[in-house]
Write a structure and sequence with these properties.
Length: about 475
């Protein structure tokens, strides 16, 4: 009965939201792909009889955290097959790039028929949810089909926890059906337990995102991007990533004020939403600064493309602060999945989503490179990480509009201070690594217990018949 009511409510919601969805479809180009998967159709039937783990990652961040986990799982048991689902298009695109040999699809809506059809085609032995995405029908159907559901890298922000608490009477049963939850820390573990999870089903495995981080600047992806923009060794580079509009303009302001003082100074902007990059480029052009979109830079090595790229990246003459000078164009990255490598080019980093209400973005990537990292005061999404970085004097909080310029200025003028700040950030990241290994161990333990239970049920059936 509960499943029927959920299906009715979901259907009513889709009907009510359909005008908005149609508008996004045609006006914004959103949600155009994957409807056949989301409605439970055309998911590729799995032919193999090997054990299969279905991993679900909502979007880009969750897809990235699967990288070290999948690596650990494959190392420990190369015979297991994996399939990956995502919710968003950006997540789907990244999953196809990161896991080219793994079948990727859009997760079905939480409708009974869609889920049952998907499960019958995939025949998974386990469902793994990255961080947390509680869909009652999905979890209930998996339980009925004796498919264990495991949450990895589990986190419950204070805001999410308060929201779930208000609806605890409604979702408590769903949480109890989850076989095991591996959380990032003790705080999150306690929150899951307070929502109705049994203490035995919640354990601390650490934050997987620390394990998937690149710590060597001289890595192939970063070297490729540095070559793409003609970056000279030792040139000062300011990278502002996962930014919102206000933060983009603050970074541009800081760059404009410092560009006359540092030779070959570069600014790389990586907005959180690539679809607004073209509009941002127009705004920067109106300010009077040169800029170009990353997508316009051909990676081809033929002579004509190389010459065109080099020409577009040449310093351009402008007047700044009453001084005639030449500055490099600001590079606006409108390509998904490159931010991690761009951080490796940075002399100074600013992590966005932290001045507005978004709650901050991932500051671990630049920290892992040993880059002097900064962010705004609103970082509740990464509260524990920020606490550790600040406790180790390994980052700086930008409190106001002038703070960003002062931070970058100090990094460029005081290399010893900047090096110390960055090294402490890198040490903080290294201290937290190892979660992917613990997560893989947890998943295999659940799978082993599940297989043993199935074997026990099978052995008992003949006796019951007798």
């Amino acid at each position: 009965m509960a499943g029927l009511l959920l299906n009715i409510n979901y259907t009513l919601f889709l009907l009510v939201a359909s005008p908005w969805l149609i508008w996004r479809f045609f006006a914004k180009g959103k949600n155009k792909r994957g409807w056949h998967h989301k409605l439970g159709g055309r998911v590729r039937p799995r032919q193999s009889q090997s054990p299969c783990i279905w991993l679900h990652a909502v979007s880009v961040g969750e897809v990235n955290l699967l990288v070290p986990v999948l690596r650990e799982l494959k190392q420990q048991d190369p015979n297991i097959e994996f399939v990956i689902s995502t919710t968003t298009e950006t997540g789907f695109n990244l999953a196809q790039t990161r896991f080219p040999d793994t079948y990727t699809f859009f997760c079905p809506f939480d409708l009974t028929w869609a889920i049952k059809n998907t499960i019958s085609r995939l025949r998974p032995d386990m469902l793994v949810l990255a961080e947390l995405e509680v869909w009652p029908n999905l979890i209930k159907i998996c339980q009925k089909k004796e498919i264990p559901v495991v949450v990895i890298n589990g986190r419950l922000s204070e805001k999410s926890f308060r929201g779930y608490q208000k609806a605890r009477w409604l979702i408590q049963g769903t949480f109890k059906r989850i076989s095991m939850i591996g959380t990032q820390n003790e705080t999150y573990r306690n929150r899951f337990i307070r929502l109705g999870c049994n203490p035995e089903q919640v354990t601390i495995t650490g934050n997987v995102k620390f394990d998937g981080l690149e710590t060597v600047r001289d890595n192939p992806a970063t070297k490729k991007l540095a070559h793409l923009i003609g970056l000279k060794p030792g040139a000062p580079v300011f990278v502002a990533g996962s930014t919102q509009l206000e933060e983009d303009l603050l970074a541009v302001n800081a760059f404009r004020e410092l560009a006359t003082e540092f030779s070959d100074f570069r600014l790389i902007l990586v907005p959180r939403h690539p679809e607004r990059c073209a509009a941002l480029a127009k705004q920067i052009d109106q300010i009077g600064l040169p800029c170009l979109l990353r997508s316009k830079l051909s990676a081809s090595n033929n002579l004509a493309d190389t010459q065109a790229r080099q020409s577009s990246l040449q310093p351009q003459p402008i007047e700044l602060n009453g001084v005639s000078t030449r500055i490099h164009p600001i590079v606006i990255v409108d390509v998904i999945g490159e931010l991690g490598a761009w951080w490796g080019c940075a002399s100074a980093a600013y992590v966005g989503g932290s001045l507005g209400k978004r709650g901050g973005q991932n500051m671990m990537e630049p920290a892992a490179f040993g880059i002097p990292v900064s962010f705004g005061p609103n970082t509740e999404n990464f509260k524990d990480i920020v606490h550790d970085l600040l406790a180790n004097d390994a980052a700086r909080v930008i409190a106001d509009k002038s703070g960003l310029k002062q931070f970058v200025d100090q990094v460029l003028r005081q290399p010893d201070w900047a090096s110390g700040l960055g090294q402490r950030a890198k040490n903080t990241v290294i201290h937290h690594q190892g979660a992917s290994r613990r997560t893989a161990k947890l998943l295999f333990a659940v799978l082993k217990k599940h297989d043993a239970a199935l074997a026990s049920h099978s052995s008992q059936k003949p006796n019951q018949a007798a």
